[in-house]
Amino acid sequence: MDQPKIWRLEVFRNGHVEFALWGRERIAQKFNEAGPWELIAFAIAEYIQNFVDLIAEIQDQFTISDPYLVTVSIYHAANLCLFEHHRDSLGIAKPRSWKEGQNLMLPPRIYFAEQATDSVSQRLCDLFWNAFGYMRCPFFNANGKLALP
User: Fold this and answer.
1) Sequence spans of domains, the chain
2) What per-residue string of b and e applies to 5-41 under the rule 16 or more CB within 10 Å gives b?
């Protein structure tokens, strides 16, 4: 039996790009069976960085100079948890849950082709972490580069 597709990438003639990922297992895990689904923080940051890099490549290849609009959404996000960084060596941390509705939908942001992809990714990740009440995404170093564990 064929495996169902768990992701979709569409690039339209007008430069519109959509990436959709189905299945919580790609972005979340259960630390224990009784516990809530916990977002894999570094995976979220990496998906966002890779998507922004893809958009920049498309802009370069097709000489698109228009600004682009980027948003991040997670459907059926109610009660998903996010740890600011990760659990400590004893497996202890205080997660924050999404309780503001069924879906987490960040407001769209406009970016211009000349902006560095790292700064765009960092801003989007910071917005995502802000949705859970954290100040910023911890996976960017002092130079604004993604630095995964």
Assistant:
1) 7-131
2) eeeeeeeeeeeebeeeeeebeebbeeeeeeeebbbbb
